Amino acid sequence: MEDKRILYVSSEVVPYLAENEVSLMSYDVPKMINDQGGQIRIFMPRYGNINERRHQLHEVIRLSGMNLVVNDVDMPLIIKVASIPKERIQVYFIDNDEYFKRKATFSDEDGVLYPDNDERAIFFAKGVVETVKKLNWVPDIIHVHGWMASMLPVYMKHFYKDEALFSETKIVTSVYGQSFEGTLDVEMINKIKFDGIATEAIADLEVPNYENLIKTSITHSDAVIIASENLSPSLTKFIESSEKPFLPFAPKEGFAEAYTTFYKNML
C-alpha cells in the first residue's frame, strides 16, 4: 500500500476515547497501513470528554472559520489536530461548540441519546469533506467506521458528487455490531433532503435507527467490511444481498493481510 492515500473517518478512535470494537479498529487499521508506507489521515468528532491538554490538541486556524449549513442554520466549523504518540499519525478533530462541547459522546448521564445526534452526524460528514478539500489531499479510499460517520458516504455520493477532487475515490464502510437503542430525530430524513438529496436515496432513514443508518451507509459505499464477529442476521443478509464487494469478518490476528488485499482489489 506504499504511497496510497487512505482517509479514515470514525465515530471513535483510541487513545482519545475508551477502548471498544470501533475505537480499536479505527486505530489498528490506519496504523497497519501507515506501517506499510501508506499515507493516511484520520478524522473524528472532538467530543467534550476528550482531554485536549493531555492529548495536545490544537486548533488549525487556516482550516477553521467556515460555516456549514445544517437544516438551514449556519454552524461554525473548528478544526483541531493532534498526533498519536510514537506513530507519526495525525488525527483531525471536527469541532463545534453547539454540537460537541458536552462532556460525553452520544448520550447523557442517563444513557439518553442526544436529540441532535442526527445533526451532529450531518455536520461531521460535511466538516470532513470540506476540510479534506481545503487540505487539497486526494484520498484513494475513504474508510468509514461507526454510525456517527455513516452519513459521509451519502454526502459524498450526492451533495459532493461533482467534486473533481474525489472523482476516483472509493468508499468502504466497516459494519460493527456496536449500536444504540431507539432512533435518532425522526426529522433526520428531512434535514438531509434540505441538502438536495432525493427521498428515494435515503428512504431507510424514515426510521433513523442504528440498522437503517448503517444500511444507508452501505448503499452509498463501493465496498463493505464486516468488522464484528456477531453482526445481526438482518445486517449480514443486507450486506450479502447488496451486490457490493464485501470482506467477511477477519479476526484481529489475521486482519492486516485481509484488509490490505481487500483495499488493493478496490483500487
Outline the structure in words:
This protein has 267 residues and is of the alpha/beta class. It contains 9 helices and 11 strands. The strands form 2 sheets. A 9-stranded mixed β-sheet has the order 3-6-7-2-1-8-9-10-11, with helices on both faces. Strand 8 (141-145), helix 5 and strand 9 form a beta-alpha-beta unit. The longest helix is centred in the middle third of the chain and has 19 residues, at 117-135.
Short recap of the structure:
By secondary structure, the chain is an alpha/beta fold.
Classify the secondary structure makeup into a structural class. alpha/beta
Helices and strands, in order, run as EHEHEEEEEHHEHEHHEHEH
Assembly state: single chain
Question: Sheet with the most strands?
Answer: 9 strands, mixed
Percentage of residues assigned to helices: 25-40%
Proportion of residues in extended strands: 15-25%
- Counting DSSP E segments of at least 2 residues, the number of strands comes to 11
Instruction: Report how far the terminal alpha carbons are from each other.
Output: 10 Å
Number of helices: 9
Strand order of the largest sheet: 3-6-7-2-1-8-9-10-11
| Low-pLDDT segments | none
Looking at the structure, what is the overall shape?
A: globular
The Cα radius of gyration reads: 17 Å
Calculate the mean pLDDT score and round it.
96
Structure characteristics:
267 residues, alpha/beta, two-stranded antiparallel ribbon, 32% helix
